[in-house]
Design brief:
The protein is of the alpha/beta class. It contains nine helices and ten strands. The chain is about 40% helix and about 20% strand. The longest helix has 16 residues, at about 70-85.
Length: about 240
Amino acid sequence: MLIEVAVETVDDARVAHAEGADRLELSAALELGGLTPSVGTLLEMREATPLPVVVMIRPRAGGFVYSAGEFSTMLRDVDAAVGHGAAGVVFGVLTAAGGIDVDRTRKVVERVAGRGEVVFHRAFDLLADPLAGLEQLIELRAKRVLTSGGRANVVEGTEMIGRLVQRAARRIEVLAGGGVTPANVAGLVQATRVGQVHGTFAEERLDEAGVVCEGRYRATSGVKLRETRAALARL
C-alpha cells in the first residue's frame, strides 16, 4: 500500500518521510483545498527528502473553471514545477457545464509529457458521471486520479471508489483521498481494493508566538501517519 501525504512545508515533508510516506503532494493553503506553492518550497523539499514530490497547480480557490489568464498562469506553473524537479503535477480543470475540460487537460498532459506524472485532483468529485470521466482521463493519458468517490469523504464514497478501481483495471491509478484516517483506512482498502491513499494526517499546533497573536496552524502528525501505516500493515 502506498501512502501519499499532502504537505505544505519542509518540516511536514521531513515528518512524512520519517513516518513512512511514499510520496508527497506539495500545496500551499491546504485549508482552501490546496493552491500552487512556491518554487522555493519545492526546492527546499527536494533537498530535505528523497521522496517524489508532486506539485499542486491551482491558481485560486473557489472552483475549477478558469479564465484564459488563469489557465496561462497554470501552464507557466507547470513548467516551473517540472523544471525544478517535481515528479509531477496535480490539477483539475472543468467546463462551465461541469465536465472535464478535455482540451485544457490535454494541454497540461502534453506540457508535462516525458517530464513527470499528470494527476487529476478532486475536481473529479464534482462530475455527474465519474465513470465516464475516468474513461476520459484514461484516453487523455493521465497517470492518476485523486477521488473521494464523489462524496464529502472516502467513507461516504467507498462504493464509488470501489467501482472506479474496478473500471480502471490498471489503466489509470486511483488514489483515494478525502478524510482518510488511521481508523477508517483499513476498511476503505478492504472494501475498495484501492492500492494507494492520500491524506494530510495533520494536527493543529500553536505558533510559538501564540501568546501574542493566537496563531494556530496545521502540520503533519507523525503519530497519525504512523498509526495509518500500522493499520495498513495489519491487513
